[in-house]
Backbone:
């Protein structure tokens, strides 16, 4: 029998989980209505499962998603999680009509803020916005950060088939940069134009399709020059970078070749190599990827100061995975950096509040 996992920092660090999903009941209701009408294949696959299946895991997920209080806290306690950074579950506002999206974003931000005020040592949160109305999105992000104390922006990948590298979204990125808060680029199912062969094979979701979609989204942002335009923009990406760290050499090599050959209008010279943006603008979390070889590799190629812990509750609630990460081949200061210090730094958390001191 192994010892229970404990909170409180007795192990030498606080465990801060940085990709933790929440949904207000109002969104669950809207998702159910959306399922009746939407043509979004990925949404039907994903939320069709989570909202209608009687199997144990989807029932657990839909119950726990809606809790930002005692139930979630007791499960955090049992897994040794001191603090959770909450964010609106995928696909969040991004399948809704503009009016509903704005409303759900505001409700979500208010509820998450309430949880952070009730349990300041246990919860922080990211802001949701409706991406259909950009001036309103900027205002809501500013309200969430400046008035509600939220710590970043959640973007659940594609926005009805659109991506953050498109200039219409620049004001949102500009606001995040100006506020000094990161954008968490979280997965969604691939958009309708790329999902077909994935969904027919049962590979559209978190098993693989999420990563295909989200890696492409981040790569589009880099190659479009988003980080040249917004050099201080911080992007956090889960699942250890959605496989992109494995590609860095090839991306640098092929990108340089394509620039030189002027093969595509969309591929332009960039100020840095693709791999260099990973070491300047991008942070990774270990959501769903608690495996030592991959974590060591990511630390080696993007930097030990850029790889931090995430659980992905309630989609992934496996206390054993905390033990796996406690057992990483790291020194005590490195473990503290991984579980605690990077998250405090990137999200601008208040260490005194989190440690309850
Ligand atoms: C799943 C995984 C669903 C993750 C998620 O949100 C999610 C899943 C709808 O397993 O279906 O955030 N995840 O990040 O790995
Ligand atoms: Mn997730």
Residues:
């Amino acid at each position: 029998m192994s010892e229970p996992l404990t909170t409180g920092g007795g192990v030498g660090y606080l465990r801060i989980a940085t990709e933790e999903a929440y949904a207000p009941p109002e969104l669950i209701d809207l998702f159910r209505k959306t399922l009746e009408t939407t043509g979004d294949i990925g949404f039907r696959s994903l939320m069709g499962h989570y909202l209608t299946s009687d199997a144990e895991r989807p029932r657990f997920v839909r119950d726990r998603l809606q809790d930002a209080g005692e139930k979630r806290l007791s499960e955090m306690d049992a897994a040794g999680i001191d603090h959770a950074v909450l964010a609106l579950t995928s696909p969040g506002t991004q399948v809704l009509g503009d009016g509903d999206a704005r409303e759900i974003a505001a409700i979500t931000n208010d509820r998450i803020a309430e949880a952070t005020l009730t349990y300041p040592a246990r919860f922080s949160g990211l802001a949701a916005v409706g991406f259909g109305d950009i001036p309103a999105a900027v205002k809501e992000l500013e309200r969430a950060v400046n008035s509600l104390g939220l710590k970043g922006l959640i973007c659940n990948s594609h926005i009805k088939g659109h991506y953050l590298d498109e200039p219409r979204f620049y004001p949102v990125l500009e606001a995040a940069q100006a506020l000094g808060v990161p954008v968490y680029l979280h997965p969604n199912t691939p958009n309708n134009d790329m999902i077909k062969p994935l969904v027919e094979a049962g590979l559209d979701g978190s098993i693989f399709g999420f990563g295909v979609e989200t890696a492409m989204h981040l790569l589009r942002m880099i190659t479009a020059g988003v980080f040249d335009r917004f050099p201080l923009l911080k992007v956090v990406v889960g699942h250890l970078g959605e496989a992109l760290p494995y590609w860095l050499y090839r991306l640098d090599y092929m990108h340089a070749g394509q620039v030189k050959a002027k093969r595509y209008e969309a591929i332009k010279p960039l100020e840095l190599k693709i791999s260099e943006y990973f070491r300047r603008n991008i942070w990774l979390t270990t959501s769903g990827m608690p495996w030592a070889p991959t974590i060591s590799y990511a630390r080696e190629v993007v930097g030990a100061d850029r790889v931090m812990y995430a659980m992905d509750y309630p989609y992934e609630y496996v206390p054993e995975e905390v033990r796996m990460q406690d057992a990483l081949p790291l020194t005590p200061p490195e473990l503290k950096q991984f579980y605690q210090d990077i998250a405090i730094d990137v999200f601008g958390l208040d260490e005194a509040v989190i440690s309850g001191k």
Notes: Residues 16-354 form a domain with the TIM Barrel fold (CATH 3.20.20.140). The first strand starts at residue 16 and ends at 22. The mean pLDDT is 98.
